From TrEMBL:
InterPro entries listed in its UniProt record: Bact_solute-bd_prot1, SBP
UniProt protein name: Putative aldouronate transport system substrate-binding protein
Alphabetical UniProt keywords: Cell membrane, Lipoprotein, Membrane, Palmitate, Signal
Gene3D superfamilies noted in UniProt: Periplasmic binding protein-like II (3.40.190.10)
Length: 511
């Protein structure tokens, strides 16, 4: 009996010990899971993954499905379960507005622009203001301040911008013409003028005919806007010594820039029909050997070059590009907005600050080199090869492979920079990319870019047209300085004075 009792006692103690150990293990696991939840979790812990619905555009008729291996790799890396909501780019705005009005917003939503519908949704509290949180993430904290401001609404950031080249503008020049005339690339406004004059008067193509001119401009007003900055004219708005903002055409240097443009027109150095020329045909005079210069985005340079080479195979290196030329106040250039849409975090699906931080962690991780390569290029050996150190895509002729990856790059922001793979490019393309980076040091920011003006939303087109029309008329000699002043007065009376007051009020509030 005694032996049997001892055996039962030992068995009972053993069971109690097992239960106790199991209980401790359960508590430990629970604590571990809670800890993982606070830190964003481990990428292998599928139970702790954050569910994300992501709305982005697609350019494909059949975007990747939920079983795409590329999507699975993104989910594993970011510790998320992602449901892609693809919006066909052909009716993106409609799909965006329908989704906004539904009230059932995805966790992360691509925002094409600061449209009235998006601004209204922001005012209604539909999206998180993410600006104060960006400093806490290794990639997002390196966002460009100019682009952040450009993409903000009255200085507040409601989406992480998708980076594009801020310093994309430049000057495209017929390099073969320079060489034929024994000239160097211009570095100042005077040298730029002398080059244009030589391109018209000194037979740069050597055909013995008077059939060339300096610079081609179309009815797209961008080139004038770019060249104005060379003279020190502000980008849309300038700031005086008292911190007051004023429109660019009231700057002291504006008339000097217009007089230069008028000189180009009077001397036949720019095409006479610039005010009506179709922008779609803007590059043709450079390609065809009629004009020697175009002020445009730098990457138009290689497109022009490739077309010239197609027509003239013996002309192997006909184009070069420069950033800008130096004017009276130094070296300046007009930036682009620096972004193509934003990725915003909705408050309808992301309800707590803790969830917001995890959503931002996802966006931050999408900027890691591994994620940029995965989303843009796919897997080495499957979607691309590295041959002799060079990237070669395998997607071109394989629809099935392309359907695994096409469109995931729409989730990329490229902050602080693009790290995905690309094929080795030509020397001209490499020069373009180099100058885009250098341009960021000289671009002129618009201090009022983020301000949402009620007056401009109603009268902006009318106000802009008054000044644009006056600039064209001054260049071609239809009005003089008095006519310019009359146009400014008309601008003021048409709502411009109130517009200045409104912008300055917004500027003071933002400070």
């Amino acid at each position: 009996m005694k032996t049997k009792f001892l055996r039962y006692l030992l068995m009972a103690l053993l069971v109690i010990g097992i239960i106790a150990v199991a209980g401790c293990s359960s508590d430990s696991d629970s604590a571990s899971n809670e800890s993982d939840g606070e830190s964003g979790g481990d990428s292998g812990d599928s139970e702790d993954r954050m569910e994300l619905r992501v709305f982005v555009p697609t350019f494909e008729t059949e975007p990747p499905t939920d079983d795409s291996p590329v999507l699975k790799a993104i989910e594993d890396y970011t510790n998320t379960d992602i449901t892609m909501e693809w919006a066909p780019n052909s009716n993106l705005e409609d799909k965006f507005n329908i989704t906004l009005s539904s009230g059932d917003l995805p966790h992360i939503m691509y925002v094409p622009s600061k449209s009235p519908s998006f601004i209204s949704a922001v005012e209604d509290g539909a999206f998180w203001e993410v600006g104060p949180y960006l400093k806490d993430y290794p990639n997002l904290s390196q966002a460009n301040e100019i682009i952040l401001n450009n993409s903000s609404i009255n200085g507040e950031i409601y989406g992480v911008y998708r980076s594009r080249d801020l310093g994309r503008n430049g000057v495209i020049i017929r390099k073969d013409w320079l060489e034929n005339l024994g000239m160097e690339e211009p570095t100042t406004i005077d040298e730029f003028y002398n080059m244009l004059k030589a391109f018209k008067e000194q037979d740069p193509d050597g055909n013995g005919q008077d059939d060339t001119y300096g610079i081609v401009v179309s009815k797209y007003e961008g080139p004038w806007d770019v060249m104005q900055t060379w003279f020190g004219v502000p980008n849309k708005w300038g700031e005086d010594e008292n911190g007051e903002l004023y429109p660019y055409f009231m700057d002291d240097n504006y008339l000097e820039a217009l007089n230069f443009f008028k000189k180009l027109y009077d001397e036949g150095l720019v095409n006479e029909d610039f005010a009506v020329m179709d922008p779609a045909k803007w590059s043709e005079p450079v390609i065809n050997g009629e004009a020697g210069v175009q002020v445009n985005v730098l990457d138009e340079g290689h497109r022009i070059q490739e077309k010239i080479i197609d027509a003239e195979p013996e002309n192997a290196d006909p184009i070069t590009v420069i950033k800008a030329v130096e004017g009276p106040t130094g070296l300046h250039n007009l930036p682009t907005s620096g972004y193509s849409g934003m990725l915003a975090v909705s408050k309808t699906s992301v309800k707590s600050e803790e969830e917001l931080k995890r959503a931002l962690d996802f966006l931050d991780k999408m900027n890691d080199e591994e994620m940029q390569i995965t989303a843009e290029n796919g897997f080495e050996g499957t979607h691309y090869e590295i041959v002799d150190g060079e990237y070669q895509s395998k997607l071109e002729d394989d629809a099935a492979l392309k359907s695994e990856i096409a469109g995931f790059n729409q989730m990329l922001m490229y902050i602080p920079e693009a790290k995905s793979l690309s094929a080795t490019s030509s020397p001209l393309r490499q020069l373009e990319e180099k100058l885009k980076v250098e341009n960021e040091e000289i671009v002129v920011a618009n201090p009022a870019e983020s301000y949402i003006s009620e007056i401009y939303s109603k009268k902006g087109q009318q106000l802009d047209n008054i000044i644009i029309d006056a600039r064209i008329k001054y260049i071609v000699g239809q009005i003089d300085e008095a006519g310019l002043e009359e146009a400014v007065e008309l601008w003021k009376q048409s709502g411009g004075t109130d517009y200045i007051e409104e912008i300055n009020q917004l500027h003071q509030e933002a400070q």
